[in-house]
Specification:
This protein has helices spanning 81-84, 87-93, 120-134, 146-157, 181-190, 192-203, 211-218, 225-238, 246-252, 280-286, and strands at residues 2-4, 7-9, 13-15, 34-40, 46-52, 70-73, 98-101, 140-144, 168-172, 265-268. By secondary structure, it is α/β, with parallel strands linked by helices. The relative contact order is 0.14. GO terms for molecular function: carboxylic ester hydrolase activity; lysophosphatidic acid acyltransferase activity.
């Protein structure tokens, strides 16, 4: 085993050629400087990781060489590719080693037994195993949507049990620790049309067949329709299994609060977010 920066070349991490990929119909083509790796979990299943090393040059301050690695966790209907478009290149250019994981049953990761990809507990444990075995510095853990809920669970339950504390965490348009049921009920009474669209788009997966609905639910109105179509295909192709059994998930919530939390947490929202923006305030209060 050899360490390179904040990345460990481990026997539990393998690289598979693009031609061998078989989980998705049209695998995401990586950008220059990115690698697709596979981390073997204790279960024996492989978790896809897209990695981009931080750029090191003479103009970068010595402090940047000690910057924590970044680990990105996606939400529903996505996979590691969603971070590879812009986030990994941006942070790599600024000296950060960056990793985007695909949760089980998503992207090119293996499928577990059963009808859903996992639970809040199992997804967080998979990320903890990756951090413990594949990074040498404590990372910043970054989660979007349901990925943000997984990050919250990680902080509340697993951080002290893994290899060192997190350097920080970022919740981007995250599902709050109480779950999304409050959002659903609020929409039903205050925005019934929006509630119908969200239900059709997500619960009924109509975003997979309706380009206008996909655009309204996930993207800005200014985005080019051809780009929306490309992402629609990737989202449909890479989410083979539901991330959670929502009934069991809701029964396990809320995520426990952490008194005197020492991990810095940044909570971010977006003014035009169609689904989550109204729940950001709840997350800020909780954390």
């Amino acid at each position: 085993m050899a360490a390179v920066g904040s990345y460990i070349l481990s026997t539990r991490m393998t690289k598979i050629p693009q031609a061998v990929l078989n989980k998705t119909k049209a695998p995401y083509n990586l950008k220059q400087g990115q690698s697709r790796l596979f981390h073997q979990l204790p279960s024996g299943l492989n978790m896809e990781v897209i990695y981009q090393k931080g750029v090191r040059n003479k103009t970068i301050d010595e402090k940047v060489l000690k910057q924590p690695p970044l680990v990105f966790v996606h939400g529903s209907f996505h996979a590691a590719w969603c971070w590879s478009e812009h986030w990994l290149p941006f942070f790599s250019d600024n000296g950060f080693d960056s990793y985007a994981v695909s949760l089980l049953g998503q992207g090119e990761s293996d499928d577990p037994d059963g009808s859903v990809a996992g639970s809040l507990q199992t997804h967080a444990a998979d990320i903890a195993d990756f951090i413990k075995n594949q990074t040498t510095l404590s990372p910043v853990l970054i989660g979007h949507s349901f990925g943000g809920l997984i990050v919250q669970y990680y902080i509340a339950n697993l951080e002290k049990d893994s290899s060192g504390n997190l350097a920080g965490a970022v919740l981007i348009c995250s599902v709050p620790p109480t779950g999304n049921s409050g959002l659903v009920w609020r929409y039903l009474f205050t925005k019934p049309v929006a509630a119908f669209k969200v239900t059709m788009s997500l619960a009924a997966k109509a975003f997979q067949t309706s380009l206008p609905l996909c655009k309204e639910t996930f993207f800005s109105q200014e985005m080019d329709v051809h780009l929306v179509q490309r992402y629609q295909e990737l989202m449909t192709d890479s989410s083979r299994m539901p991330l959670f059994d929502l009934r069991k998930l809701n029964a396990s919530l809320p995520v426990a609060s952490v008194p005197n939390l020492s991990t810095p947490v940044l909570v971010m929202g977006a003014a035009d977010d169609f689904i989550v923006v109204s729940m950001i305030f709840i997350t800020v209060l909780k954390w």
